[in-house]
């Protein structure tokens, strides 16, 4: 029955997949003639100021000034006031008390989840007038610009955890629109582990470190996590995504963002359509291999936040297309699943995405704490033209995200922090509270009133362009405490995802599950995991079972199918841009620097970094072998004239007597033995382009690299332009996946 239902569903929507999107420009309207902006207190009308102007109001410049106390008194604060030269510090030392008190309270509670993050400012530009499908002002005019801030994050780890752990990644976007703040609080994966928000504490308690040992940090390779996954099979879909390359992204720039839930677009007239949001990367998708990600975490825990910061700092602004799948209210159960189920995708080949505009990040935070740490995203930050659905996870998040800010900010006025303030005036009757920053002048802080002429007036659908709930929403039926029966099938879509990956990507998923489950202690948990995997795919269950010394159950083909979809693979397409990628050039201090300097200049022209590595620092040398690993580069090029450094290492015996700071041997006190060759070998086994300028046979032979295979370049005496062209193509491929064995 399930199989036939699936086939029928896919047949039913086949015509939709082939149809052009019905919401493109041909169906768009002109901007409504009466589309008032927000009125300021002085009678003028406002538009969002640019980010530099807005944030400048709150920035403090300490250049060429004298130290003051918090009350503005000039002071000196390097020694405490004491009773005599060797006497006790005095209680009256207000300078000491103020300084130490503030230090003691500098930290706020970190986020319960998504604690580890990085962010940046930018701008969203609408592609057109979308007022035929939504009353949202920021989508009402072609080329209309709206300031934005994005915060990227991992989910499970603490603020001090590494960027490159395997995890779902947060992708939260704030639009500072001219009608208030709109937040899309999503992830880089389009689905979530649970269907009902009441299970969220259980999920997080399960994946967080053990309460007795606080181990492991930012990892799910432990019993409680997989115990939960196997007892809550709704988690299977997200689990498959997280075990793929989507869980080990190359950078924040190289991943998509998803709104996860189904929302509503609402026109000014109250007509609705259902929508699912995506931010599609214009850099292209890329991921790290798991071993590579682990080594990266050890070498540079800040890898992803550094990549984002440096890219923007260097003018290589990352971009995403903000787009939506748009479908009718009657389509909620049309395709054999419930679109209100947050563990389900609407496959892209069923409902194509409509590009709404482009988002560009172009400004780094000036202060991490004040901006990235204090920004408060809230699913309930919506504007006119956007409304919620009855998705039970979404409904729970509407409460939770607001509630958690009371814990983090110790009061209700967190929206007044500069990073949280809308770029339009705020008028309401909310008063007082800890850290109140405004001075309300209205003495009639209630509605309705006559003493302030009824202001602030109620903004409705018809007057004041107020937010209004979609008029066609209803909540019929009896009260129940149960998951909807339309959410029941939680195994077909994980299989759809797995079927849609390249064979080598499927192998990576298997390898990730083998890594995680091999560290489980409970045989009961292992067996339960195999039962759930077997409902998705007998092949997957058998392959995972082999690694953990167990036997998979007999095939349960209730939910098996051979359907595939598009847009879920990380590796199937080359990168769209190579901006901000890095090439490591391995040379010797004794070599000529001519090749390095010409390549650095040429690669700079295509926005690719070029890092010159040698035994010690000097003219033209960027870093030393002792501080270098293959994880720092996206491609590796060896200077053939330094081939002596890349000889196959011999015995380390008696190294005390033979090692030196020589620049012509694999063994030196200037770097770990064999490090130059190790960089080449690691780069190759992690799928990176590798090449040699000049004579390279000795280097390739020592590294076990076969010349002439994909991604391996013997540049010889080729000119700089030819080398850059070949490297550029290799960087677009990013990972050469033919280097990885597949299960039979």
From TrEMBL:
Protein name, as recorded: Catalase-domain-containing protein
Organism this protein belongs to: Macroventuria anomochaeta
